[in-house]
Every structure is written in C-alpha cells, then in structure tokens.
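Protein modeling request. Please complete all fields; requests missing the sequence field cannot be processed.
Requester role: graduate student
Desired output: 3D structure, token encoding
Chains: 1
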Amino acid sequence: MLLKINIKIISTISFILLMGACSIAGSWAYGKLDGYLNNYFFTFANFTQAQEKEIKTVTRDFKYWLTKEQLPEIELILNKVNTLNRLSSSDEIDSIYRNGSDIFISVNTYFNSKLIKFSLTLDKKQIGEIDNHFLEIQEKREEEKKDRDDETYEERLQKNYISGFKRIGIDLNSQQRIILASSIKDIEDNSEEWNLLQAKWTEEMISILKTNQQNGFEKKLNNHLSSLFDLGPPSFRDKIERNRIIGIAAIKNIISSMNDSQFKKMKKSIRVYQRSINRILENQNQEGPS
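Delivered output (290 residues):
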C-alpha cells in the first residue's frame, strides 16, 4: 500500500517538474502539490473533518520538507546527469541511480511515522474502505495487464527506456534502439512475483491496521512499513540486482553512442528542470514554512 502511495507522490512531483518548457509553470504547479496529494489521500476512505485536517497538515509539512531537504538533492542529481559524456563509466551512472533511490526511500521514511499516528484514528469502517480502495486498484491493474497482453515484456521494457531518455531530451535514433534492445534482452521479467509480493504486503498491512486499538500496534506497524524495501526471498532480490546491473550497462551503451546534438538537447532539458527547482526554492525562501 505504502509503495503505491510513494509511487503516486514521486510521479506527481516528476509531472510537476516536467510540466511544459517553462519554469514558471513548474513552480506554479509545485505550489499546489499539497492540494494534489490531499485529493489523492481523500480517495482512500470517508474521513472525518478532523482526519482531513490532519492529512492537510501532513501534506503541507511534507511539501516544506521536500523543498528544503530533497529538491537540492534532486538538483545535484540533475547536475550529475548534465556531466555525462561518451566516456562516462557505469559507476557514474550507477551513482545517479542510487542517489535517486535514496530520495525515494527518504520519502517512504518521512511518511512512516505520520501513517502510524494517523492509523490510530481509523475506525473499522474506514479500514474496510481502505482495503476496498486497494483491491479496486489491483483489479484495475489486472485489467490494464489484459489490455497489453499482445505486447511482450521486452517491448514494454524498451518503450519505458525510450520514454525515459525522451524525458531528458534524448530521442533515440534507429541504431540506438537496436543497441538498447540488445543491451536489455537479458533482463528478467519479475513483475508477476513483484505484484504477488506487494499484494501480500498490502494484505498484511490491512490485517495490522485492524489491530490499531491493541497493545503493540505501533511497533508492529512500524516493523511492517520498514520491510517494504526488503520484500521477497534472496533469490528474488538477487534477480532485481542483476536486472539493475544490466539496466545500468544499457544506459551506458546509449550514452556512449550519443552525438553532440543529443547531448546539447539533453543539457537544454536539464536546464529547464533546474530553473523550475531554483524558482521553487526561491519562492520557498521568500515565504518560509507555512
């Protein structure tokens, strides 16, 4: 459940920073980040006015924390991306990947204590509504999976990589697409196992929430939240690590093949994101904490 929340948050932030080619548009949308998140959280269940007020406080504080603590880190990542060249090593690319993962985990850690505190206020009906909410999400994902059954995993994976490069201004040419396909062909599809692990984790999460009036609840929930990024047996985590290494090598192969025009367009895109972040930081420094 929390993983889906974090993905939604990161996706929202990414959308805002990528919004248009204008830093003003990005900073304006970022100003509404807490409102976007409020509307998302409000879909989980029918909350009381007091609970909605608490959610608004949490999202407001999160936006301030994200701005002061994480946006500068995102800017550092963009600076690293901006220095990539045809001679860049796998270690340099891996460093960028790990920095991004650290931000994702930081978001998770931030919300853990907030979720535990908020869970103490949930009644049985609300917990049931939250359970139904995530069951509906799972059903929707199953329907979406059926809709793309005519597409192979390799084809979907290649599309994701192409889309990812495009977000930083890099349009892969036909030869680079061949290089990409060859580079990622050994990545294993672990989506089924991953979905089952997430579903089981969410099911256990709901079971724990149902004990929110019992002794030891907070410790039990905290331990469960902390296990989110350590799901599955060692063989599964080894597969994830092998896939990551192959993915890093694939990115290196593409970067090594880029021409001057592609590097120029990449740097131009990075500057757009950096201007958005700088404007957001300037606005936050002027306004201060809410």
